[in-house]
Amino acid sequence: MSHAPILTIRNLSAVFQNENGGLRALDDVSFNVRPREFVCVLGPSGSGKTTLLRILAGLIPPTSGSFTFGRGRQPSIGMVFQQANLMPWRTVIENIKLPLEVNQMDEASARKKAIEMIELVGLQGFEDSLPRDLSGGMAQRVAIARALIHDPDLLLLDEPFASLDAMTRERMWTELSRIWQARQKTVIMVTHSINESLFLADRVLVLTQRPGKIKMDVAVDLPRPRKDDIRYTSNFGKLARKLRGAIE
Amino acid sequence: MLKRFFPILLSILTFLLGWDLLTRLSGIPNFILPSPLSVWSRFLRAMQDGSLLHHTAITLTEIVLGLIVGVLFATVLGYALAKSRALEKVLSPYLVASQAIPVIAIAPLLVIWLGDGILSKVVICALIVFFPVLVNTIVGVRSVPTALYDLMNSLHASRAQIFWKVEAPASLSVFLGGLRIGATLSVIGAIVGELVDAESGLGFLLQLGDFQYDTPMVFVAVFTLIALALMLYGAVRLLENKFLKWQN
Lengths: 248, 248
Hints:
- The complex is a heterodimer.
- By secondary structure, chain A is of the alpha/beta class.
- In chain A, 33% of the residues lie in helices and 23% in strands.
- Chain A is built from eight helices and nine strands.
- Chain A has a six-stranded mixed sheet, with helices on both faces. Chain A has a three-stranded antiparallel sheet with strand order 2-1-4, with helices on one face.
- In chain B, helix 3 (51-83) crosses helix 9, helix 5 (103-114) crosses helix 6 (118-142) and helix 6 (118-142) runs antiparallel to helix 8 (159-196).
- The two termini of chain B are 20 Å apart.
- By secondary structure, chain B is an all-alpha fold.
- Chain B has a single domain (43-247), classed as MetI-like (MetI-like fold, Orthogonal Bundle).
- The interface between A and B is medium-sized, with 25 and 19 residues.
């Protein structure tokens, strides 16, 4: 994994205009991401983690600083939001193939790929269900499938499991871990859960309270594939304590 | 099928029976309150001499053209207003003011300006349809969740793709609600125009019946109008059933 970085983030700052002159959400954030690395950005709420993700997704421009993607062009993005954010009028399969429609892929190939993705996330039999008939966990699986189907350069996850119950959330960690191993994507995931970040990430960046600065950059050298009981190992405990100490 | 329509059939039958009894027992003369049977025979006569179909066709043409023009303008302007707060600020006083004037008050003016032919009726019809469709278009487009815009922007979707894949389907439900109101109002618009001055149409027939004390004819015209309004309402309902299946 000692490749050249695929994503270089330099001195990124974000200031939102408000009545008292401006709210500084991010302050001089710099880091590199290697290809196929799973990076978790961990921080208390209001630490600008979502802002960082939205800048990387191209949804908002940074106030200053820059980020460059290794291949020298705008990266294609797969994004998973806090809520599944599905289109309620589209069935599961129609929701999943949306990115391919946007890329104007022909219908037959798009459908074929969508069916592959449905298998990957384990939603066989729900192809033609509407989002309102899905549980929270299933909806979030659809969102993950949708984020992966166009084979994006960068997968951005914005607390994707925050709205799920604890049991479902932990099952989704295993799922995501498996999907990531199968797909080998470069992932940046924002979370405020230490367990989640240690279970999934190769590396955890801890942000400070607003304005968000990088306080700690921790490599997670736990063996993969990670199983549920990894949480009871001493290595996990040591890392968790370290991260806990870093978060205010 | 029969079971579904039974209650409504029963209520219509009760209504007709009550009406018939009233004319029989009260001794109200036929030219004031005609019996259902005399209205029915007047209806058959008007069908045979072709006058009813002729006048209905004229009114229906005015309504349909008025609806098309009104909905077209309202949708385009509504979308623009929903997208631009500045435009809304400039135009909304005029739009609200235009609603303060009852269409009935300006109908004679429109007939003077545009003649007593079909054009003035189409315009009156369009004016009365315009506002509810406009308002619902604005509300509909504004109700599109911002998260869906984020999703589309993260996929680098074009303006047209955002419109067709998000804005149009997401606002359709509210828009059709406006169309349903507009469709019913359009009948009023056409009749108001015809009552001011016309050589043909159901409004003309209504007035003719009135002048000649042909009260059964007035009833025939009124019932035809009700049928037209129900038909238009039903047409919008069909659209809703077709496109909004995901909602119920």
